[in-house]
Amino acid sequence: MKRTNAHGTGSKSMTLLSHLLLTPKDGDEASIWMKSGLQSKLHNIHREEFDEVVALANSNHVIVRALEVFLNLMLEAKDDTRAQWARTALAAERARISTALTFLEDICTSLKHEMCEVAVIKSLDHWPDLGSDLDLYTTAGPEKIVDVMSRHFSARLAPRSWGDHLACKWNFLIPGLPEAVEIHMGRLGQTGEQVAIASCLTKRTRRVHIDNYTFEVASVSDRIMISTLQRMYRHFYFRLCDIVDTAELADVGAVDYLELRALATDSGIWEGVATYLAIVSDYVASYRGEGIELPKWVTAAARFGGGELYYAREFLRVPIMPQSVKLYGSQLAGLWRRREIHNCARLSLLPWLATVAAVGQKVTGSDKGIW
User: Fold this and answer.
1) Could you say which DSSP state residue 232 is in?
2) How many whole angstroms separate alpha carbon 49 and alpha carbon 51?
3) Is residue 214 within 8 Å of 169, Cβ to Cβ?
4) What's the pLDDT score for residue 84?
5) How many CB atoms lie within 10 A of CB 72?
6) What is the DSSP letter of 348?
7) Residue 62 · residue 126 · CB < 8 Å
8) Angle at 210 between CA 128 and CA 94, to 5 degrees
9) pLDDT of residue 281
10) Concatenated DSSP letters for 146-198?
11) What is the rounded distance in angstroms from the CA atom of residue 177 to the CA atom of residue 174?
12) Below-50 pLDDT ranges, the chain
């Protein structure tokens, strides 16, 4: 496996994307790019390199934001050829997003009309970008949701993996919608161990207006905790959107760190949340000179920071041994202390599930049906 430092030569396209997106908070943007030489680099980029950057931006859910900056720089440089490359890629992505938003609003409206509490999670965190599938959380049961999705959208269920069963999530395939609709029901976390966050998620939602649509989305604190569960306890890698999204929240003062600590502590993942924030801050600092403004007690609770990240297979990866294993152990111990025996048992299955998935990946080239 190709493994390099997150800022090393093996991650040239990731470094370029990071420069495009993590601009300094102060100063004239155009002059900053000129001084750094980035505009000159972009002016000389070949089509194959551009396509590689676009593919990486797509997998990291930053394609719209990155190409908007790229386009502006090429327009300033009067580089019509590369500006047109950006326009074409942006038009295709915006068309995809427009279709997805129409379906997403229809799905949320239909579920609410059927008396199902529902919130959009993850997918809209990246706006104006959108995730590769549409994620929802509901307190309704699977029979109700399957019935609504079938009647209103002729949806069919995608095959469920072992991990899907444990996490209490279902994927729906809808005619005319390229993206799958992933609905979490009553639980969160890789093994469905998180009922503390899930139990109050729909009560803490906030309303957002996107284009001509209105959605109920997770609160800022819930949003960060869900991102932490994904990155620090399940996938063990960051998409660049995780860095950019969280930095934007911090920059506008949207994060209530005291509330976040209280909720994350109650859920047994405070050390993971603090580590997630420290990683974001360190990565941001490496590109714009300073990180996000975190209270000292947040950084003190972090187990490690951005220096542990490395780039491999399109993403910024978090070491599993020993860093992530210790966070897993802390979460498991927290569930045990709170006498959540059933959730503790669910979480204890994670290493076995991960092992089987790793073996399956090595033998067959896929962990499909497992993870």
Assistant:
1) I
2) 5
3) no
4) 97
5) 15
6) H
7) yes
8) 45
9) 96
10) HHHHHHHH--EEPPPPHHHHHHTEEEEE-TT-SS-EEEEES-BSTTS-BHHHH
11) 6
12) 1-3, 8-9, 35, 352-353, 355-371
Q: What is the pLDDT of residue 356?
A: 38
Phi, psi torsion values for 208, nearest 5 degrees: -125, 150
Of 18, 19, 50, residue with least CA distance to 37: 19
**Largest Cα span, the chain:** 64
Q: Which of 87, 84, 120 is nearest to 104 (CA)?
A: 120
Neighbour count for residue 283 (Cβ, 10 Å): 27
Residue 328 pLDDT: 64
Residues 283 and 6 sit within 8 Å (Cβ to Cβ): yes
Helices (H), the chain: 12-21, 29-36, 38-43, 47-59, 63-76, 80-113, 142-153, 162-167, 195-201, 220-230, 240-251, 257-266, 270-288, 296-301, 325-337, 341-348, 350-364
Q: List phi, psi (to 5°) of 159.
A: -55, 140
Dihedral sign (CA 360, 365, 368, 371): positive
Dig out the tokens for 207 from the structure: 């309303």
- How many CA atoms are closer than 13 Å to the CA of 28, on its beta-carbon side? 4
Tokens read off for 164: 């899907």
